[in-house]
Amino acid sequence: MRKLFVYMIYVFALKFCETLPPDMMTAPDPNFSSPIANITVPVSREAILTCVVHDLYSYKIAWLRVDTQTILTIQNNTITKNHRIGITHTENRIWQLRIRDVKESDQGWYMCQINTDPMKSALGYLAVVVPPDIIDYETSHDMSVDEGQNVTLTCTAIGLPEPEIEWRREQRKPLMSIGSEEIFTIKGSTLMLRHANRHMNGAFLCIASNGVPPTVSKRIMLAVNFPPAIFVRHQEKVYASIGQKVVLECISESHPNSFNYWLDPSGKKIIQGGIYESMTIENVYRVIMKLVIRPKDSNDFGPYKCIANNTLGESEKIIHLHHKTNPNDARKYVLANQVDSTEILNSDSWDSQYYESDSTLASSASYQLLCIITSILLLLSSHS
């Protein structure tokens, strides 16, 4: 009886082995050649997770989403209904799970399985990153405030990882000054500006970055309102002869923009033409007012007023144009049309640097120089 039982087991074993593929009867167990590399992919790009195996033979590969326990693919077949997911393989060794048009929700762990008994598996992580984006309705827009008020600018951005926000100004202007130190950048979603002043007029930049290109920014214009203030860049007394061209110049600062004009010595508003030629050069809140005069008679000399007014107030300055009758009364005066207007507009200090000497003074200086040279020559000849 015992011999019959052994014989039956032997026959059963032979028949079972005949039904198995020859390679599985002699092949070693399949295994993973290397771990699955974790990958980081920007949103909307394609993610490729790679599973490399050896000695697979007739065993099968499957991909699963770990957190949802969803079967995505088995061998060459895509099981999930997600049309963005596909599978490719090379030589039955390299199995790649491909996810097109990656979304934030695709982030997580993925498993590559071999259907051995017990089952073998390897894990890989897909990290999805999102470039920064500034949320417009949660970010400050262009604003106008009165000088002296406190200002709060806010900026909100989203992205993955969370973006960092930095504040700057255009043209490398400082955001603020603390004592003698100028601050050019500040990090954080909120920028506090205490006691806004006219120098804060202009564009502020909210810049959001998280290491995922592109970096984004928003431009916020700040307008600080204040009444006009007028300065005379050069002398308040200018000397000229009849027929000699002279340029008077005032610089006004205001916001909103001021209405600027000149009054002649009789108090009348100057109209372009005749002996007068007026012009203005504007930049943000600063305006250069120039008046070119070619006096014809003594009535053209006297006090000239430059005036600026806006809805918040008015300001004026007087420049006296004197008739030069004696060379000893001459003064050096500034020829304003030789000054770089860009320098004036962008400078906060107005030192008089550009002068033109009167022709009479030039002649006098030449005469004195000739006398000195003649004296030296006579002295040398007497010693010889």
Structural account:
- By secondary structure, the chain is mainly β.
- It folds into three domains: 106 residues, Immunoglobulin-like (Sandwich); 90 residues, Immunoglobulins (Immunoglobulin-like), CATH 2.60.40; 129 residues, Immunoglobulin-like, CATH 2.60.40.
- The protein is built from four helices and 27 strands.
- The chain is rod-shaped, with a radius of gyration of 43 Å.
- The termini are far apart.
- The N terminus is likely disordered.
In terms of topology, how is this protein built?
Blueprint: H1 2-19, H2 22-26, E1 31-32, E2 39-42, E3 47-54, E4 61-65, E5 70-74, E6 77-78, E7 85-90, E8 94-99, E9 108-114, E10 120-134, E11 143-146, E12 151-154, E13 157-160, E14 164-169, E15 176-178, E16 181-183, E17 186-187, E18 190-193, E19 202-209, E20 216-232, E21 237-240, E22 246-255, E23 259-263, E24 276-283, E25 286-293, E26 302-310, E27 313-323, H3 341-346, H4 359-383
Parallel strand pairs: 2-10, 11-20, 21-27
Antiparallel strand pairs: 1-3, 3-8, 4-5, 4-9, 5-6, 7-8, 9-10, 10-13, 12-18, 14-17, 14-19, 15-16, 19-20, 20-22, 22-25, 23-26, 24-25, 26-27
